[in-house]
Amino acid sequence: MIEVKNLVKRYGNHLAVDHLSFKVEKGQILGFLGPNGAGKSTTMNMITGYISATEGDIVINGYNMYEEPEEAKKCIGYLPELPPVYPDMTVLEYLYFAAQLKQVPKEKQKHMIDEIMEKTKVTDVSKRLIKQLSKGYKQRVGLAQALIGNPEVVILDEPTVGLDPMQIIEIRDLMKELAKNHTVIISSHILSEINAVCDTVLIINKGKIVLSDSTERLSEHFKGKNDLTLEVKATEQQLKAALDPISEISKLQIEEGEEKGLIRVLVQAVGECDLRERIFFTLAEAKCPIYTMSIKKMSLEDIFLEMTKEEPEKQIKRGLKRSILSRNQKKEETGNVSDL
Q: Could you tell me which residues are beta bridge partners of residue 295?
């Protein structure tokens, strides 16, 4: 549905977007992440045709943005971070105006607008002036205009800014519903939102893609960064004495446990080592019973911080290394087809 090829944007000597290439399939919800100044908004503005690229191509539903801009833009509904609403229009007037701009046939406008107002929960304020609405309702009206014309691609920049918790839940449910008939790109600083809604996450830093994968598989890139958490009945001295001989432990953090007599232990292993069995038998031999043991997967917040704290070149190299390791591991687990 969306194909971005070798996209570059320069402002004088400043390289805002550095040779980005990615695809978004039909019905997918892509979460677009990156620190401020990473090039997110610039990339989204180029995808929508709002600004031109210095180099590269953007293909929307088979139409090249720079060769067939009118056809490509017909496929896109866009909600910028600041909703493009006219404060002196009523909600209904504004949505009819948007329908005319998007060349929706007159006989289809009423039914489409009524349906979209119902979806975005603005029917009850349809006759009010937009300037009299709360920030949350203005955001909903902006989302409603993005859906006018039933575009194949919906691009949302910070779609839940200014909404109360109930409205956020409703908009998230709406975004999931949209994916049944649309391809959706969401840019957000609320990482829990990306985790809750998106199928795929794309993280960029200083104009480069540093990580792209499904939300379920992201933590697999950081297997060596997973922490092992234990609750043990022991003193700090007993625990350190028991675990000290295990050279593969790179970090050992000890805290007071929630229950009396227990201590909470955070263990980090060197590289990809899985120390669960070794720690279990070591502590059993030392007569330090383990009450709980669990692996703490890296959260999206942890991954985001990890991937945006270094130079993109280093991150990309490490990402490629992780991908190669992951593929090799899968071959070992499943066997080579030619060997069967």
A: 228
Mean pLDDT of successive 10-residue segments in the chain (340 residues)?
Answer: 92 91 90 85 90 92 92 91 91 96 93 93 94 89 92 89 80 84 86 83 87 73 67 90 88 83 86 82 92 76 69 51 43 39
Quote the CA–CA distance of 127 and 95 in Å, as a whole number. 11
Strand (E) or helix (H) holding 210: strand 208-214
Q: b vs e for 95-126, b when ≥16 Cβ sit within 10 Å of the residue's Cβ?
A: bbebbeebebeeeebeebbeebbebbbbeebb
According to DSSP H, which parts of the chain are helical? 40-47, 69-74, 91-101, 106-120, 135-147, 165-178, 191-197, 236-243, 276-285, 300-308, 312-334
Q: What is the pTM of this model?
A: 0.70
